[in-house]
Specification:
65% of the residues lie in helices and 0% in strands. With 91 residues, it is an all-alpha fold. It is elongated and about 50 Å long.
Length: 91
Amino acid sequence: VALGAGFCDGLGYGGNTKAAIIRIGLKEMQKFCKVFYGDRQIKDETFLESCGVADLVTTCFGGRNRKCADIFAKNIAAGGAKGGGGGGGVM
């Protein structure tokens, strides 16, 4: 989710797009937990606590994954990182 938020920032898509990514990401987190941890009966309210949406928002606005995706998207949009492979110095 944080990578998606970073790509959104790097490509200049704006706050509404970023909010949509975060909302969809939260729903995906809930779905993931129900599929893989359904036997533990995780409550939906848990995702509205600090360990859920608050952590997600913090990560999507300032985490290193968001920052890396932001820089990567700006670099690609500027015409950087032509070709494939290697990964040497893309960021």
